[in-house]
Amino acid sequence: MAAAITGQKIRGIDRYGKFITIRLERGVLTVHLGMTGRLQLDAPPAKWTHAILTLDRGVLTYEDARQFGRIEYGPGIPERVAKLGPEPLEITLDEFSRRLKARHAPVKAALLNQAVVRGVGNIYADEALFRAGIHPKRRASSLSRDRMERLYRSMREVLAEAIESRGSSVSDYVDGQGRKGGFQMLHRVYGRTGEPCASCGAPVRKTTVAQRGTHYCGKCQK
DNA sequence: CAGATCACCTGCTTGC
DNA sequence: TGCAAGCAGGTGATCT
């Protein structure tokens, strides 16, 4: 990969779901941060730095303690990435409804499934379901038209607000400039197990859906 | 084919 | 204090 990309200019940087795509002159670097990956400019090499890209101005490093992330290089984005579902901030309500209606899995599992929509992760699935008043284990196909619309709006609202707050720093997340995000302050259920629900006061509960920790209000979410 | 389960890793917190 | 277990922003392979 080093030999293939050396000397190429960076033509643009975009995002595709949870993937970061760095467009070069003859190919594309496709990056996924996994759980603990970080792309940083001018950060000194550390214990878990796996890639060092020397640029004309500065050094771009990839650091990842858990090593769940990856960097791929090819003529375009990989096929398995290209065929993921639509962007949640671009999809229409009708298309969103069609896709969820086709899923028998718990609605939270469907939201996390990147083939359904691309980009919704564990925090934002929990937060969107809370705002929509929908129980995470309810079958996606069982959602009424009204609930489907509430979930659609909540998902987009949560993502837009999280982006505005530059993400959620639950433990160690920092952006490319090394700054922590601020959305964790606005989480209503994620990481708030046992605390009173912001809406009704009942304690926030925690369960498991699709092998992921799942936070919800048993009283507000049906 | 959709859905469920497990595997991949390190590091931090919790409980005995 | 020490140590084992449990848990964490996510996919991807492999089962049923």
How would you characterize the overall build of this protein?
- The protein has 222 residues and is α+β, with helices and mostly antiparallel strands.
- It folds into 2 domains: 8-82, N-terminal domain of MutM-like DNA repair proteins (Alpha-Beta Barrel); 93-216, Helicase, Ruva Protein, domain 3, CATH 1.10.8.
- The protein is 24% helix and 23% strand.
- It has 6 helices and 9 strands.
- The protein has a 4-stranded antiparallel sheet, with no helix packed on it.
- α3 crosses α6 (145-164) and α5 (122-132) packs across α6.
- It is globular and about 55 Å long.
- The termini are far apart.
- It binds a DNA duplex (16 and 16 nucleotides) through α5.
Structural class: alpha+beta
- Please count the beta strands (DSSP E, at least 2 residues each): 9
What is the averaged pLDDT score?
Answer: 97
Radius of gyration, in angstroms, nearest whole number: 19 Å
Strand order of the largest sheet: 1-2-3-7
Query: Unreliable runs, pLDDT <50, ≥5 residues?
Result: none
Q: Note the run of SSEs as H and E.
A: HEEEEEEEHHHHHEE
- The CATH architecture category of the largest domain equals Orthogonal Bundle
Tell me the β content: 15-25%
Question: How many helical elements?
Answer: 6
The geometry reads as globular
Counted up, domains total 2
- This entry's quaternary arrangement is single chain
* Euclidean distance between termini CA atoms: 49 Å
Top-tier CATH class of the largest domain: Mainly Alpha
Question: What is the CATH topology assignment of the largest domain?
Answer: Helicase, Ruva Protein, domain 3
How is the main sheet built? 4 strands, antiparallel
Helical amount: 10-25%
